[in-house]
Write a structure and sequence with these properties.
five-stranded parallel beta sheet; alpha/beta; Rossmann fold; 13% strand
Length: 129
């Protein structure tokens, strides 16, 4: 399914999971058999920014149990340069997306997202769900 054995989950797959979408549940189960699943600070903050009150404890319990990858100086620098370089080409990317992409690149993780077009970086391995 992917080149790397480990995966960084974007917000989109987690929203589908928390909403009980069967295809997301099956997809994540398949990925978890291939490698480890990770989240980063940006994804966690995006999830909590839109969490429904009734889902809060379930979401919190799930995210606290996840593997977590840090965003350090190198990753933040790469994200800023992605934003700058793509903007110069007329492609406006959000800093959130460039942080997620740089986290995946710096930690050799395959990014799992519905929003593939938000992640045009050539060195990034992306799979759509």
């Amino acid at each position: 399914m992917a080149q790397n054995n480990d995966f960084l989950l974007d917000t989109t797959i987690l929203i589908d999971l928390f909403r009980g979408r069967q295809e997301a549940i099956v997809f994540l189960d398949k990925l978890s058999q291939e490698g480890s699943l990770f989240v980063c600070a940006v994804v966690v903050s995006e999830i909590f920014s839109g969490v429904r009150p009734a889902e809060l404890s379930k979401v919190e319990e799930f995210l606290e149990a996840m593997n977590y990858v840090q965003i350090d100086y190198k990753t933040a620098k790469r994200a800023g340069l992605y934003k700058r370089d793509f903007q110069r080409k007329g492609i406006n990317l959000s800093i959130s997306d460039t942080l997620i992409a740089s986290t995946a690149v710096d930690h050799s993780l395959t990014l799992v997202t519905k929003n593939v077009r938000h992640f045009p970086m050539r060195e990034l391995n992306v799979i759509a769900h």
